[in-house]
């Protein structure tokens, strides 16, 4: 990129690798240089927690606020009732209002770790706001909405968006309900501009079409110039989608994934990703990120531990990061049983006269199914109390009462106890 931004925000995100596209980089830079700008990112409430796949854009909002601007986290209490069809092969399951509200509460706990929310909106400055698009979507009059908003959308153009086109090309069903999602998201940008002077929407590059729709709609209805900015869709250097692990999604809520497991996810980063992830997911100076990312051989472990500590500290706090590192050293360097390992506590009723060792690995999250656990046994990748397990068998109540340490591969551990 030859353009050198004047604003701190754009300068930081470009040098750290956050920027994929922007609708008008120079015009946005002027706005950011001349005073406080308000932006938003939208999050549909499809789960009780955000996951690591969301963390890139959460860090983007954090840098936005740290450089003097005002972020809005827009919760999709309304749009979650429809479901974003972007790059999906099938319709999302529809959630009820109570589940959506519970999910928003869980997600809010994560945002509070990264952003400073305004206690008094009248004197908020650049304090973050959390809004729910159900505030305006739930009360829409359908006929008025079609007349005032729907007339600005061309079905021909909507069908040309890659997120929709790819699904139709595969002859996969796209319901009218889902097709309306992009209109509702565009309307969000219009409402946020009207209510809060919001000038910028940010999101992953898969949201480019939805963001551009909102910009076009706001121009047509309010004659305001607004902007869109996207981040790259990240994959790890070995081709995996960022945010996924062998055990599934890497959740950000501590009650869904322990701080130790979260720390361990980052500690297991591939060598080639260390420098890049340090720039994206920590606030370390660029020079330090480059130094740690350039380490070779066993020395790269210094960068991985630093990455795990910095990211875990931001989410769970310094004490949790230190405890996770101490547990890892106890388990991996000294062969001990770390106190911070994930623990499966079984009741006497659950154990009965005994329980299959395959079931223990599944319930502890070390295998996705009994079949997967048996394959792990056959490959010599499973251990109980550091002894290799080669076949399925029943574990007695006395064995479980004495406490078990389960190991899958070299780096995944869990404890089992009788409650």
Explain the overall architecture:
This protein is of the alpha/beta class. Helices cover 46% and strands 14% of the residues. It has 20 helices and 15 strands. Strands 1-6-5-2-3-4 form a six-stranded mixed beta sheet, with helices on both faces. Strands 9-15-14-11-12 form a five-stranded mixed beta sheet. A two-stranded antiparallel ribbon has the order 7-8. Helix 12 (259-267) packs antiparallel against helix 15 and helix 13 runs parallel beside helix 15 (300-316). It is globular, with a radius of gyration of 24 Å. The termini are far apart.
Layout of strands and helices, then pairs:
Blueprint lengths: L7 H9 L4 E2 L2 H9 L4 E6 L8 H15 L3 E6 L21 H18 L14 E4 L1 H4 L4 H7 L6 H6 L1 H8 L6 H4 L1 H16 L3 E5 L3 H15 L4 E5 L12 E2 L2 E2 L9 H9 L6 H8 L4 H8 L6 H17 L1 H16 L9 E4 L1 H4 L2 E3 H7 L6 H9 L3 E3 L2 E2 L5 E3 H5 L2 E5 L3 E7 L1
Parallel strand pairs: 2-3, 2-5, 3-4, 5-6, 9-15
Antiparallel strand pairs: 1-6, 7-8, 10-13, 11-12, 11-14, 14-15
Our measurement of the CA-to-CA distance between the termini, rounded to an integer number of angstroms, reads: 59 Å
* Main sheet attributes: strand count, strand direction, barrel closure: 6 strands, mixed
The best one-word shape is globular
Q: How are the strands of the largest sheet arranged?
A: 1-6-5-2-3-4
Please give the share of residues in helix. Answer: 40-55%
Count the DSSP helices. Answer: 20
**How many E-type strands?**
15
Kindly state the mean pLDDT as a whole number? 87
Would you tell me the structural class of the helices and strands? alpha/beta
Radius of gyration: 24 Å
* pLDDT < 50 stretches: none
As a percent range, the share of strand residues is 5-15%
């Amino acid at each position: 990129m030859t353009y050198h931004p004047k604003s701190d925000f754009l300068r930081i995100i470009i040098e750290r690798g956050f920027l994929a596209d922007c609708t008008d980089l120079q015009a946005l830079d002027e706005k950011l240089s001349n005073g406080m700008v308000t932006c938003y990112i939208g999050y549909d409430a499809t789960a009780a927690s955000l996951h690591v796949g969301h963390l890139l854009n959460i860090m983007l909002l954090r840098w936005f606020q740290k450089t003097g601007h005002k972020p809005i986290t827009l919760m999709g209490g309304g749009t979650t009732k429809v479901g974003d069809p972007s790059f999906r092969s099938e319709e999302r399951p529809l959630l009820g209002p109570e589940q959506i509200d519970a999910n928003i509460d869980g997600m809010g706990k994560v945002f509070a770790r990264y952003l400073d929310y305004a206690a008094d909106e009248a004197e908020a400055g650049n304090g973050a706001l959390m809004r729910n698009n159900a505030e305006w979507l739930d009360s829409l009059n359908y006929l008025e909405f079609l007349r005032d908003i729907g007339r600005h959308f061309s079905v021909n153009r909507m069908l040309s968006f890659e997120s929709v086109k790819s699904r139709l090309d595969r002859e996969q069903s796209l319901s009218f309900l889902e097709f309306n999602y992009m209109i509702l998201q565009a309307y969000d940008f219009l409402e946020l501009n009207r209510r809060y002077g919001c000038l910028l929407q940010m999101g992953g590059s898969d949201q480019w079409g939805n963001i551009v729709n909102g910009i076009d709609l706001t121009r047509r209805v309010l004659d305001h110039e607004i902007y869109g900015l996207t981040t790259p869709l990240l994959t790890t250097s070995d081709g995996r989608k960022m945010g996924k692990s062998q055990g599934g999604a890497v959740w950000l809520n501590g009650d869904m994934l322990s701080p130790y497991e979260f720390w361990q996810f980052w500690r297991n980063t591939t060598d080639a990703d260390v420098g890049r992830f340090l720039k994206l997911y920590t606030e370390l100076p660029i020079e330090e990120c480059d130094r740690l990312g350039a380490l070779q051989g066993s020395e790269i472990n210094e960068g991985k531990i630093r990455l795990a500590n910095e990211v875990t500290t931001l989410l769970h706090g310094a004490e949790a990061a230190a405890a996770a590192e101490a547990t890892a050293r106890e388990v991996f360097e000294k062969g001990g049983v770390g106190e911070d390992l994930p623990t499966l506590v079984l009741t006497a009723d659950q154990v009965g006269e005994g329980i299959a060792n395959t079931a223990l690995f599944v319930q502890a999250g070390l295998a996705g199914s009994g079949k997967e656990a048996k394959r792990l046994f056959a490959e010599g990748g499973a251990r109980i109390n550091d002894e290799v397990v080669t076949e399925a068998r029943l574990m007695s109540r006395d064995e479980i009462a004495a406490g078990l340490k389960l190991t899958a591969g070299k780096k995944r551990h869990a404890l089992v106890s009788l409650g």
